[in-house]
UniProtKB/TrEMBL annotation:
<keyword id="KW-0560">Oxidoreductase</keyword>
<dbReference type="GO" id="GO:0016616">
    <property type="term" value="F:oxidoreductase activity, acting on the CH-OH group of donors, NAD or NADP as acceptor"/>
</dbReference>
<dbReference type="InterPro" id="IPR036291">
    <property type="entry name" value="NAD(P)-bd_dom_sf"/>
</dbReference>
<protein>
    <submittedName>
        <fullName>3-oxoacyl-[acyl-carrier-protein] reductase</fullName>
    </submittedName>
</protein>
<dbReference type="InterPro" id="IPR020904">
    <property type="entry name" value="Sc_DH/Rdtase_CS"/>
</dbReference>
<dbReference type="InterPro" id="IPR002347">
    <property type="entry name" value="SDR_fam"/>
</dbReference>
<feature type="domain" description="Ketoreductase">
    <location>
        <begin position="8"/>
        <end position="190"/>
    </location>
</feature>
<comment type="similarity">
    <text>Belongs to the short-chain dehydrogenases/reductases (SDR) family.</text>
</comment>
<dbReference type="Pfam" id="PF13561">
    <property type="entry name" value="adh_short_C2"/>
</dbReference>
<dbReference type="GO" id="GO:0030497">
    <property type="term" value="P:fatty acid elongation"/>
</dbReference>
<dbReference type="InterPro" id="IPR057326">
    <property type="entry name" value="KR_dom"/>
</dbReference>
């Protein structure tokens, strides 16, 4: 613990489990207060309680709803007095080959990942403008760089998050707001561990470091981008992949 985020408040979407929860825990270890948003009201309340009620709260939030995002951000300001960091992490998968993928499956993934990240970035930046500072961290994926079989929806959304982050970073840099993105590779989460073993092994074979990443290894990079350690970085994309797709 080094207090890199002492006195800061961070909002994290998709915060009830996996990478989002790991980021929340690491942020708290670094001195931050955290507001977790998640579709699952009970799970996000339990996650926040597990971290500690004095430094964490959970709020039910559908990231495709601007009203829900506004409510989530308001909860941060009301409870802790500020909004210093926004992590747009919420995501879903609806994998299928393009031939079999339905329009609904395409739209669901684009709405949660791309529209959700846009709303979170837009509304957080509006609050951060007023205080003249802030850091936004958007969660892309290595799938947004290379394109994954069976993920025309997910790969397109994750590539879009990169371009969105760069465009938005140009718009708000003069206001003291930094926006950067992370592209995780194969990270050991409940979502990835549900993969068929053959799919897991084929991905493992592509990783020079020979192992999957852990959620906390993404969280540590999120701390870097959220803190003053990255004070002269905006519009960047950091790959955290064990060397996959170099």
């Amino acid at each position: 613990m080094s207090d890199l985020l002492a006195g800061k408040t961070a909002v994290i979407t998709g915060g009830a489990q996996g990478i989002g929860l790991a980021i929340a825990k690491r942020f708290v270890d670094e001195g931050a207060n955290v507001v977790l948003g998640d579709m699952n009201d009970d799970a996000v309340a339990a996650a926040a309680a597990g971290i500690g009620g004095d430094v964490a709260i959970g709020v039910g939030c559908d990231v495709t709803s601007s009203d829900d995002i506004a409510k989530l951000l308001k909860a941060s300001v009301d409870r802790f007095g500020t909004l210093d960091v926004m992590v747009n992490n919420a995501g879903i998968t609806r994998d299928a080959t393009m031939r079999k993928m339905t329009e609904e499956q395409f739209d669901q993934v684009m709405n949660v990942h791309l529209k959700g990240t846009w709303l979170g970035t837009k509304l957080a930046a509006e609050i951060m403008r007023e205080q003249g500072s802030g850091a936004i961290v958007n969660m892309s994926s290595i799938s947004g760089k290379v394109g994954n079989f069976g993920q025309t929806n997910y790969s397109a959304a994750k590539a879009g998050i990169v371009a969105l982050s760069k465009a938005a970073a140009k718009e708000v840099a003069a206001k003291g707001i930094r926006i950067n993105a992370i592209q995780p590779g194969l990270i050991r989460t409940p979502m990835t561990e549900a993969m068929p073993e053959q799919a897991w092994e084929s991905k493992m074979a592509e990783i020079p470091m020979g192992r999957a990443g852990e959620p906390d290894e993404i969280a540590k990079v999120a701390v870097f981008l959220a803190s003053d350690l990255s004070s002269y970085m905006t519009g960047t994309v950091l790959e955290v992949t064990g060397g996959r797709y170099m």
